[in-house]
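HOLO CASE FILE
Compound: guanosine-5'-monophosphate
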Amino acid sequence: MEEVLDRPFLCCFTYLRTLMKPIRDFFPLLTEFPKRVVITMHQKPDPDAMGSSLALAGFLQKLGHQVQVISPTNWADFLKWMPGCDQVLDYDTSKDKADQFLKEADWVFCLDFNAFYRTRHMASMLERLKCIKILIDHHEQPQIDSFDYGISVVPKSSTCELIFEFIQESGNDSLIDKYIAQCLYAGTMADTGSFRFPVTTPSVHKMIGRLLETGFDHSMVHEAVYDNYLENRLRFLGHVLSNRLEVLYEYNTAIIAISKADILRFNIRTGDTEGLVNYPLSIKGIKLAALIIDRDEERKWSFRSKGSFDCNQFARAYFEGGGHKNASGGRSLLTVEQNVSAFKQALKQVASQLQ
Ligand code: 5GP
Ligand code: MN
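Model generated. Tokens follow.
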């Protein structure tokens, strides 16, 4: 993400200020009379979405607020160790209860997504709410006219880093305990590829230093997230890499296409396909990796790149998606095969960017 980092931060803030109030204007409200708060995140939450939401929940509870975290969908088993995860509501299976919390909320925080459609069946409810809505996110092109307060900083490593700054800059650093710290650590770890991607700035390392001072076991966090799969997932990985990977050397690109039959054969559940799209990038010379999976209601794309190729633009232009420069996603109602053909056609259009 070097180019993104080169962009002056000021542009981002100036642009946002005209449409939603900066997050620091919200700080004085934090100590007002206890509020009813809902925190939500993007569908199929990853460690950054769930970690930032639970860390913020823990922090706001310490300030005396009443907080309910709602996920638009179910989530992977490798998130279930996070403190507070057992209290999270799944909108898909607890819609009535979740709607009640949303209707009664004074504040709704939207974390780690840039547009309401990323919350699937929750989207129409969120659009209709009249309470104070706050966005905290790091994805490109946020839907800022939908929020009262917010911060959207594309060059940030993770939403967890933004929550850390939210806590510190509102003058509450002393409230960061080991439960909040391990949630923030998990999200930052995941979004930086275990502190490997270019977004891992000196500030990220300083933050991690502060989090570790709380005394949580960071090795446990790595194990809980990455070494917590069932045998079938490893067998599935072997099958996919042997039989479902196509390398298109002329475009420095590799694609993995997974059918419904593959999902059923290996009993694949939410979270089992996490990280799969990164494997092709370990092949020398590969600059773009793409993964398409046949989900029940749609075909879901994931894109990852190395260097200058812009996955966000690619996903927006060809597959109704978006995300970041080096990691994005998209979707389509066409079949897997039709999608793979469309992808290969799209590659011809962007071939020069992949040389
Ligand atoms: P993943 O491939 O892990 O699902 O997503 C990669 C990145 O792209 C994440 O930051 C995710 O939030 C974002 N992303 C995934 N799918 C979509 C999409 O359909 N629309 C947008 N705007 N972002 C997406
Ligand atoms: Mn994130």
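CASE NOTES: The first helix runs from residue 2 to 6. The domain at 232-354 is CATH 3.10.310.30 (Diaminopimelate Epimerase; Chain A, domain 1).
CLOSED: yes
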